[in-house]
Design a protein that fits this description.
Helix content: over 70%
Number of strands: 0
Number of helices: 5
Order of helices and strands: HHHHH
Structural class: mainly alpha
Strand content: under 5%
Largest sheet: none
CATH superfamily: 23S rRNA-intervening sequence
Length: 121
Amino acid sequence: MSIDSINKTYDLEERTFQFAKEIRLFIKNLDKTIANFEDAKQVIRSSGSIGANYIEANESLSKKDFIYRIKISRKEAKESIYWLRLINETNKIPSNNKPEELIQESTELKKIFSAILEKSK
């Protein structure tokens, strides 16, 4: 699934899953350096945590737990942006492998979780 397809996905569980999958596919094409290995581990963790915590939020037993999990999802989206920017700015990445699209998707997810938090107050 391409990033364009992700943007058309309104099921947030599926959208976060596809985002984490796209991160993993992107990482496979990076040069095998120590820095990339460490940065890749971080972005893989944070991108997967976005959806995992969203699923946990949907299964929460209280409003307080729901809000807590959504805040974690938002935090992990912010962290994903950080690691993606770092990878983007320290690598020569072919134009067909656009980290900017992944950064944009992570930014949109962060905004979605912020909106959910606002409406949950």
